[in-house]
Sequence to fold (401 residues):
Amino acid sequence: MQFSTSPVSRTPPTLATLVLLSGLSALSMNLYLPSLPFMAVYFQTDYKVMQLSIALYLLVNAALQILIGPIADKMGRRPVLLWGLGLFLLATLGCIYAPNIETFLAFRMCQAVIVVGIVLSRAAVRDMYEQDTAASMIGYVTMGMAVVPMLGPAVGGVFEEAFGWKANFWLPFALAALAWLLTYRDFGETAAASGKTLLQQFREYPELLMSPRFWGYSLSSALCSGAFFAYLGGAPFLGTEVFGMTATEVGVYFGAPALGYFFGNFISGRYSVRFGVNRMVLWGCWLNATGVAISAVLFLVGLGTALSFFGLVTLVGLGNGLSIPNATSGALSVRPHLAATASGLSGAIMLGGGAGLSAWAGALLTRETGAMPLLWLMLATSVLAIFAILSVIWRERKLGL
Fold:
């Protein structure tokens, strides 16, 4: 398969292109979640095995981000995007026609290549703007992206009941084909040539790994989003097995954090330049922890319901919408000449942790335990996120770093 990557457009990509590229990654992660219990029946396997399709996807997603960043810093954003989208199309067809669970999981892991969209859309923004402005623009990009996970599970639930689980893979296939064409026509290269070999690009990693600021921003983003990834692994089970909801109901309720995420990203886009990235990340981490803590208290005193669980998780989404764009911009600004490498490494830390938390949440839950194991896990990561960003703020105030 040969792709021509010579630019049709030499201008930077439009906001619509960046939103679609970012949104595809989110869509492929959560559109099919309402189908998980039914896919377990189709493939004649246990739900916990089916749930591995989330954890393995996130794990490969994290590993690929480590590779994608340096490759894109060397080769440019555009060609890596075109190849990644092409490979995602092939992997999606593999998922649709998989004859057994082993084959499905193999192609599901290959689908993780779609992470090029979110890594390189953020890197492209950082190519074009300075730190606080980049945080604002990333907020707008991910605000548009938030519409996808907000509507995705609801659409996935309807598709499951109307057409079966395969429809939830045909839709991202069609959108990825559109994204490939749009990238080819609209995405002019945003990165200057690095002038280094690929091996030299990978040798730049220690420059990031030795930076406490990079780790502070990356860990605050990873731990804050950890609450969401734990939710991702446990909420479908809670919805169907504990709360007794239908696939459509799970899909509608499951999108609750994305509603908060949408508004959080809007606030980031509107106010990051005014208040600065550190303050926005800290506020986001506090909101994240507050939502989970209130929900846990309600379940401990016997007042927790499906409505309170899914309703309060909107605060998790709101906190993530404030923290992730700003923490990402902070991480990418530690070494601006390594924007894609930093984007990939920071994303790998976030999704690697997310994969573990997602699998852990799925393993903890039974009908007897109810929601509490998931809420304790979400609360622990939320509190640790606060300490991570406080470490960055402390270093800047005390050490001037």
Notes: Residues 1-9 have pLDDT under 50 and may be disordered. The chain has 17 helices and no strands.
